[in-house]
């Protein structure tokens, strides 16, 4: 079982990362407000405000207390991902319900996968037998975060935290999985570019 951490530095890094990822739409709105009388600016302002709303909704579910929700809510939440302009999130439909803790784990894994697609691509999330969730990614130069690989190889969350806010999703994922008693592993690759990440959330 993955151990949980109460290291306050994780919260500090997460706050820094959230502020960074909210910065672009907030700055965009600030730049557009003086031009709000113009039709084009109004359209851009509306789009940017919607982007900010989607991102806040995602971050509330991914990093907050949250509530139980439907599995099929995941695509709507992931529409707020900072990488959504270059990464497509394909969530295989299911009638399942997921807890707030499972939601945090799934969203962290999906965002971590999207970070591994610097040139764009797709992230696929699917339920498998026995409560296993497979998170796969496909795209040019796709690779899992080195921070994630080190954690999977037995590295500590404390050491991962030292890598800074750009890499905070890997220790956050492991901390959430540890608290929920979930297992994380990489599948044995068979004819795929990058092995899927497997999340054992229970039946």
Summarize the structure.
It is built from seven helices and seven strands, in the order ααβαββαββαααββ.
Strand numbers in spatial order across the main sheet: 2-4-5-7-6
Which of globular, elongated, flat, extended, rod-shaped describes the shape?
globular
The value of Rg in angstroms is: 17 Å
* Largest sheet: number of strands, sense, barrel closure: 5 strands, mixed
Compute the number of helices: 7
Number of domains: 1
Within the CATH hierarchy, at the fold level, what is the topology? Heat Shock Protein 90
- Which class in CATH terms? Alpha Beta
Poorly predicted parts: none
Class by SSE composition:
alpha+beta
Percent range of helical residues = 40-55%
Report, as a whole number of angstroms, the end-to-end distance.
Answer: 16 Å
CATH homologous superfamily grouping: Histidine kinase-like ATPase, C-terminal domain
């Amino acid at each position: 079982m993955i151990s949980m951490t109460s290291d306050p530095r994780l919260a500090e890094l997460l706050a820094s990362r959230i502020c960074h990822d909210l910065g672009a739409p907030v700055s965009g709105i600030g730049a557009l407000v003086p031009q709000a009388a113009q039709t084009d600016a109004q359209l851009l302002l509306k789009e940017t405000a919607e982007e900010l709303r989607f991102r806040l909704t995602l971050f509330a579910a991914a990093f907050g207390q949250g509530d139980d929700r439907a599995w099929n809510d995941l695509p709507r939440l992931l529409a707020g991902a900072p990488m959504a302009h270059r990464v497509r999130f394909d969530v295989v439909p299911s009638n399942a319900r997921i807890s707030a803790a499972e939601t945090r784990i799934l969203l962290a894994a999906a965002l971590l996968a999207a970070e591994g697609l610097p040139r764009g691509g797709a992230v696929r999330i699917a339920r498998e037998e026995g409560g296993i969730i497979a998170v796969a990614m496909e795209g040019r130069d796709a690779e899992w975060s080195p921070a994630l690989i080190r954690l999977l190889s037995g590295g500590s969350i404390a050491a991962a935290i030292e890598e800074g806010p750009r890499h905070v999703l890997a220790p956050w994922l492991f901390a959430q999985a540890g608290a929920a008693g979930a297992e994380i592993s990489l599948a044995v690759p068979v004819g795929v570019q990058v092995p899927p990440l497997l999340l054992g959330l229970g039946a």
